[in-house]
Amino acid sequence: MIVESEKKRTTIWRVIITVTTVIIVALGVFLVVKMFTGNPLAGTWTLDDGTMTLEIGSSKAVVTSLDEEGSLTYDYKLNPQEKEIQFMKRESGTASLEALDSSFNYSVDGEVLTLSEREYGEQFIFEKE
Length: 129
Description:
The chain is 28% helix and 40% strand.
Protein backbone atom coordinates (compact mmCIF):
# COMPACT_ATOMS: atom_id res chain seq x y z
CA MET A 1 0.00 0.00 0.00
CA ILE A 2 2.78 2.45 0.86
CA VAL A 3 4.64 1.58 -2.36
CA GLU A 4 1.60 2.39 -4.52
CA SER A 5 1.08 5.78 -2.91
CA GLU A 6 4.82 6.49 -3.23
CA LYS A 7 4.64 5.70 -6.97
CA LYS A 8 1.61 7.97 -7.36
CA ARG A 9 3.34 10.78 -5.46
CA THR A 10 6.44 10.45 -7.60
CA THR A 11 4.39 10.47 -10.80
CA ILE A 12 2.37 13.51 -9.72
CA TRP A 13 5.56 15.32 -8.64
CA ARG A 14 7.23 14.65 -12.01
CA VAL A 15 4.17 15.93 -13.88
CA ILE A 16 4.11 19.11 -11.79
CA ILE A 17 7.85 19.73 -12.31
CA THR A 18 7.56 19.07 -16.07
CA VAL A 19 4.58 21.43 -16.52
CA THR A 20 6.27 24.14 -14.43
CA THR A 21 9.49 23.83 -16.43
CA VAL A 22 7.63 24.08 -19.75
CA ILE A 23 5.78 27.19 -18.57
CA ILE A 24 9.00 28.88 -17.39
CA VAL A 25 10.84 28.08 -20.64
CA ALA A 26 7.90 29.31 -22.76
CA LEU A 27 7.71 32.54 -20.77
CA GLY A 28 11.47 33.08 -21.15
CA VAL A 29 11.32 32.52 -24.92
CA PHE A 30 8.36 34.89 -25.22
CA LEU A 31 10.15 37.66 -23.31
CA VAL A 32 13.38 37.30 -25.31
CA VAL A 33 11.48 37.37 -28.62
CA LYS A 34 9.41 40.37 -27.50
CA MET A 35 12.50 42.31 -26.37
CA PHE A 36 14.55 41.80 -29.53
CA THR A 37 11.93 41.79 -32.28
CA GLY A 38 9.56 44.52 -31.11
CA ASN A 39 9.52 48.07 -32.40
CA PRO A 40 11.28 50.24 -29.79
CA LEU A 41 9.65 53.38 -31.22
CA ALA A 42 6.03 52.19 -31.22
CA GLY A 43 3.65 54.49 -29.39
CA THR A 44 2.67 58.13 -29.22
CA TRP A 45 5.37 60.77 -28.78
CA THR A 46 5.00 64.53 -28.20
CA LEU A 47 7.59 67.07 -29.35
CA ASP A 48 9.27 68.74 -26.36
CA ASP A 49 7.77 72.15 -27.19
CA GLY A 50 4.29 70.60 -27.46
CA THR A 51 3.64 71.63 -31.08
CA MET A 52 3.63 68.19 -32.68
CA THR A 53 2.76 64.57 -31.90
CA LEU A 54 4.22 61.52 -33.60
CA GLU A 55 2.26 58.28 -33.47
CA ILE A 56 4.29 55.31 -34.67
CA GLY A 57 2.42 52.12 -35.46
CA SER A 58 3.47 48.84 -37.02
CA SER A 59 3.67 50.11 -40.61
CA LYS A 60 2.98 53.85 -40.60
CA ALA A 61 3.64 56.99 -38.62
CA VAL A 62 1.16 59.84 -38.23
CA VAL A 63 2.43 63.34 -37.46
CA THR A 64 -0.12 65.77 -36.07
CA SER A 65 0.52 69.48 -35.72
CA LEU A 66 -1.15 70.87 -32.62
CA ASP A 67 -0.69 74.46 -33.87
CA GLU A 68 -2.12 74.06 -37.36
CA GLU A 69 -4.70 71.34 -36.65
CA GLY A 70 -3.46 69.09 -39.43
CA SER A 71 -1.88 65.69 -39.77
CA LEU A 72 0.33 63.85 -42.24
CA THR A 73 0.86 60.11 -42.68
CA TYR A 74 4.32 58.67 -43.35
CA ASP A 75 5.54 55.23 -44.25
CA TYR A 76 8.76 54.37 -42.49
CA LYS A 77 11.66 51.93 -42.56
CA LEU A 78 13.23 51.02 -39.25
CA ASN A 79 16.74 49.60 -38.95
CA PRO A 80 17.24 48.66 -35.27
CA GLN A 81 20.83 47.48 -35.77
CA GLU A 82 21.92 50.88 -37.12
CA LYS A 83 19.39 52.77 -34.94
CA GLU A 84 18.05 54.48 -38.03
CA ILE A 85 14.54 55.38 -39.14
CA GLN A 86 13.60 56.76 -42.54
CA PHE A 87 10.27 58.52 -43.03
CA MET A 88 8.64 58.70 -46.50
CA LYS A 89 5.56 60.90 -46.76
CA ARG A 90 2.41 59.55 -48.38
CA GLU A 91 0.89 62.94 -49.22
CA SER A 92 1.80 66.62 -49.04
CA GLY A 93 1.25 68.74 -45.98
CA THR A 94 2.43 71.93 -44.36
CA ALA A 95 6.12 72.71 -43.94
CA SER A 96 6.12 71.92 -40.22
CA LEU A 97 4.55 68.52 -40.84
CA GLU A 98 7.00 67.72 -43.64
CA ALA A 99 9.99 68.33 -41.35
CA LEU A 100 10.27 64.58 -40.74
CA ASP A 101 10.55 63.65 -44.43
CA SER A 102 14.14 62.41 -44.08
CA SER A 103 16.41 59.80 -42.49
CA PHE A 104 17.20 60.02 -38.79
CA ASN A 105 19.38 58.32 -36.24
CA TYR A 106 17.27 57.62 -33.19
CA SER A 107 17.98 57.21 -29.52
CA VAL A 108 15.46 56.06 -26.93
CA ASP A 109 16.38 56.90 -23.37
CA GLY A 110 13.54 55.78 -21.13
CA GLU A 111 10.60 57.97 -22.07
CA VAL A 112 12.57 60.32 -24.38
CA LEU A 113 13.04 59.79 -28.12
CA THR A 114 15.71 61.83 -29.90
CA LEU A 115 15.68 61.95 -33.71
CA SER A 116 18.89 63.34 -35.22
CA GLU A 117 18.75 64.08 -38.93
CA ARG A 118 21.55 62.26 -40.71
CA GLU A 119 22.28 64.94 -43.29
CA TYR A 120 22.08 68.24 -41.39
CA GLY A 121 22.15 67.16 -37.74
CA GLU A 122 18.86 68.82 -36.78
CA GLN A 123 17.36 67.21 -33.67
CA PHE A 124 13.80 66.55 -32.62
CA ILE A 125 13.22 65.53 -29.00
CA PHE A 126 9.97 63.74 -28.20
CA GLU A 127 8.53 62.56 -24.89
CA LYS A 128 6.37 59.44 -24.67
CA GLU A 129 2.75 60.00 -23.75
